[in-house]
Structure of Serine/threonine-protein phosphatase 4 regulatory subunit 4:
Amino acid sequence: MHPPPPAAAMDFSQNSLFGYMEDLQELTIIERPVRRSLKTPEEIERLTVDEDLSDIERAVYLLSAGQDIQGTSVIANLPFLMRQNPTETLRRILPKVREVLHVAGVEMQLTAAVSFLTILQEESVSIHTYAHSFLQVILLHLEHRDAGVSNAWLETLLSVIEVLPKETLRHEILNPLVSKAQLSQTVQSRLVSCKILGKLTNKFDALAIKREILPLVKSLCQDVEYEVRSCMCRQLENIAQGIGTELTKSVVLPELIELSRDEGSSVRLAAFETLVNLLDIFDTDDRSQTILPLVKSFCEKSFKADESILISLSFHLGKLCHGLYGIFTPDQHLRFLEFYKKLCTLGLQQENGHNENQIPPQILEQEKKYISVRKNCAYNFPAMIVFVDPKNFHMDLYSTFFCLCHDPEVPVRYTIAICFYEVSKLLNSGVYLIHKELITLLQDESLEVLDALIDHLPEILELMSTGGESSVQENKLSSLPDLIPALTAAEQRAAASLKWRTHEKLLQKYACLPHVISSDQIYYRFLQRMFTIMMTNNVLPVQKAASRTLCVFLRYNRKQEQRHEVIQKLIEQLGQGKSYWNRLRFLDTCEFIIEIFSKSFFCKYFFLPAIELTHDPVANVRMKLCYLLPKVKSTLKIPADKHLLQQLEMCVRKLLCQEKDKDVLATVKRTVLELDRMEMSMDAFQKKFYEKDLLDQEKEREELLLLEMEQLEKEKQQNDGRPMSDKTFEKKRRDTKTPTTLPKNIPISVPGPTSGTQSTSKEIKKSKLIRSQSFNNQAFHAKYGNLDKCAGKSSTAAYTPSVSGLTKTSVISLTDDSFRTRNATSAPSSFSSNTPLPSTSRGTGNSGDPKSGGSKDTQPRKAALKSRKSNP
């Protein structure tokens, strides 16, 4: 963009100043009507009410002498008055309301209808009192000249009918209805009668309906006005449910057949929709001999009739397929399927290269109706799969599915994206047939389509990966090379838009990826992206979603050195980042780590970096840490973590003594009370913590199994150079009692408390680790040691918080060159780091010798790991 010329920036010429003055005069003219609309002193005097009046007296005064707006306010406040003083309200206010409603305008009438309904729903008075006081007012205004007011009172009456006793209904509503439904009455009166009759059938027995209601129903079905016939036809469904199957066949079905041949298209449409909704009531003979010919005739004539009939037909197609399933002949089955396919492409054969501004309005309206038809066809696609049998999907419906996924209109693609999961479930082992369509919808240019698809993305990918067979362990997504690029492109497209909720949802759903693609693919294609979002995105829910998904990725990562690189990056770039915003996100990440990982994992890697933020210069960070401290304390076990508990207590004391921010100090005090009330978990199982301890033990066992599985992979790679049979490898695996599968029990959303029973190590490995990624042939060579080897090179560094009156305490911190990242040819440079990875290990509570800092001869970490393995 080029900067504007200097003359355009600011012009102080005479002409320009006159122009500014004219603009100011126009603004003055605009404001004048506003000033004129203010109330005069006389008007204000008339609107003023004595403040000493009670609510009842004020309401009576306003209804008697006030203006319309004041009367409307009183009627809107009627439910409150009924709750406060029902007796006085009924005695003094309700008569005034009746008087006012006779001459009231539309707004007051609508307000009264809503208030009467609210009083009924709140049960402020008994049903008998309500019927005596309010029912006649409702019935009186049913035929108001304004259609909106009439409908509002009708809705109130229909709700009242639900609770009124039979005798009241018979005398107050049904008996007067006989005269209201006559041809001599107005059309509006007969329309109201139709809807009331449909509601009354649920309140009387079949005999009373046959004797008192059905004659009126037949009369209204034969009314001279098509509007009345159509309205009565739509009530036949309620009437059929009230009179039972036999009367429906003998009375309702003949009326529906006659109405389906009516000269009015709206009447025929109402008859068709009612027949579809009543299919379950009719037996096979009625369906095959009566209803099927009607449906067939309706379908044949639909293209020649109004497009609105096509819209209704396409919407009810799934119900028709289900209701008429089994009575089609092979020829009828084929013709019905071809009819559905034709509807799926309706309107696509026309030329689309024209300019919309040059299209006549009637053509545009027709195209909108065609879009609705194709959208309804997409909605009914799962039902059509059942109709043709999933085994015949590729031959009968795949081309139609392809067209719907590539439809030029967004509503059609949006609807088929919603149905994609249902389609995948129905295809089961044939789900591979729609792999390409999944990629197409993931790459769709409309974020609405993507948002609809990702609602069930984890389930869809799971079906794709197993081929629809839950017992199959082999991942089948290797045959879909475009999946990962499509997923990454979808996330980038959502990130570039303003629809952050779609972006957040997508990141949450990506937590399922460890179950469908390999650990290395996640590490190289998704992990760095999660870091970038956490560091650069401006939307807090998106950052938190990325943080939690990254923690899930870390949980399932199968390479120890990659896990250490991620942990180190979290601590350095977030926990020790220059931006306080990043440090806040580190605390969010710590919360997710506590949720997803075992207690020992958090204490080992994140405990000290988290509590170090008590020294943070930003008050918001310290406050957020205070809220997190109870969860941090819950990860400790006594006596193994006694030294960490001392560190925590020391940090809390320092906050209490040195905190200057009043809000943080108040939060610290509340946190201290909560920490004092907490009961510490012991190394041994306790009854009150049994379920939580068992779940934590299970998480810790699975984390240790990851290390053993990595060792197995390395052994297999080392044996690739010399002959090694599968039997030999399986024997080694059995000897180590380690299965080649990964656990799949980490929830994508925040889990609730779960319970389980303790089992042996062998049973846990067989039952919990139910999925395995195939061993990666491109795995890294054993250039770096594992955790045991790394510990051999570690050195101790004293952690000495300076608080007066407290002794210095030190814990082991791990510094190891083997945790540095690989060179640029084997890992992203963004993961490189040369700083130590802080760690604490249970069983190392004794303070280290300050003189040994920097020495390489300290106790190796392998012993600490063995002590953790030996703990129950």
In short: The radius of gyration is 37 Å. Residues 1-12, 470-474, 723-835, 843-872 have pLDDT under 50 and may be disordered. Residues 690-718 form the longest helix (29 residues). The CA atoms of residues 795 and 858 lie 6 Å apart.
